[in-house]
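User: Last request for today: this protein with zinc ion, please.
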Amino acid sequence: MGKLLLKNGYLIDKSERLVRYKADVLVEDGYIRKIAEGIEDKDAEVVDCTGLYVAPGFIDIHTHIFKRSKSLGVDADRVGVESGVTTVCDAGTAGPETLQEFIDTVIKPSRTRVFSGMHFSKRGLEITPEADDESKYDFDLAERVYEENKKYICAIKARASNTTVGELGIKPIQQAEAFARKIGLPLYVHIGRALPYIEEVLDTLGEGDMITHTFHGKESNWILKDGRVKQEALRARARGVLFDVGHGEASFSFKTAKIAFPQGFLPDTVSTDLHARNIDGPVYSLTLTMDKMMALGITLEDVVEMVTARPAQYFKFSVPIGKIKEGYCGDFTIFEVENGEYEYLDSDKNELKGTTRIVVHYAIVNGKVELKK
Ligand SMILES: [Zn+2]
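Assistant: Here's the final one, the structure of the complex with zinc ion:
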């Protein structure tokens, strides 16, 4: 596969204590071989990274990229490498009965690394509500499909809101949590309007499970109460429950973030929930979602960690990604940060001003340049 040499970039990977550290990176046969100043290798293809940041390839843990779903599915490479994102996870669009089709039509042909956060419901999000009736899910089937396809599955997806579980309330979520724990995967849980109540959902989850849409603006079933983050959320975080952004068309509010972030309640991971109905606004891309986080006060180093080392630590990927470290996959997002005056919109059409914007120059997967701008 040959060698690729990234020259003169500023490396950003806080998890490896690389904070704008100027060095070269040599990739050989798809894996990071050496990180040092002044590497020379006349056999290597050189990427000139002068003036640019070199980060581990960005990971978006919440997208909908299964083309079978006409209302949700977007092209994996459009939200992936063409947007500077080297790994994407589909959040439950496919379930145990449709996973094989997802593997054949999306995971295998894409230039982006693709994983499934497989829904516990048999058909994923094909028929909604997807978990309001016990005949719609089968944990024995889900376990068999997981055992046969482990390398493609990084998490189990569930949705806990009135449009998904109906009168069953919290019960399917409790069952899904027990199932995910049994097979050793994190449960990745959408939250929205009650039922179930957010307090029940938080109390159901354990270490390594993750909430998405954490900072939505649906005040009737909110993470906040009287201007404070709810005790149930603080207790859950103390137990090791994780909190993701999952921007979406209706699930990220600057108002919520502006109350939660100053209390130290920051996201563990940043993701988009990109699908057919929000890719042309208000979400657009992972990097724009990162820009919004920076406009809300999160540093560049931290927001990069929230889309690289953190998701790689929490989700179960079958390959070593998310770090600039010898032996890890040669996946990189190479970018600059432009300064200017920008205006952003959240899911509720609130405005926010920011002064920085991530502009991607290269996306590299497995030592191969997949995007060059
Ligand atoms: Zn989603």
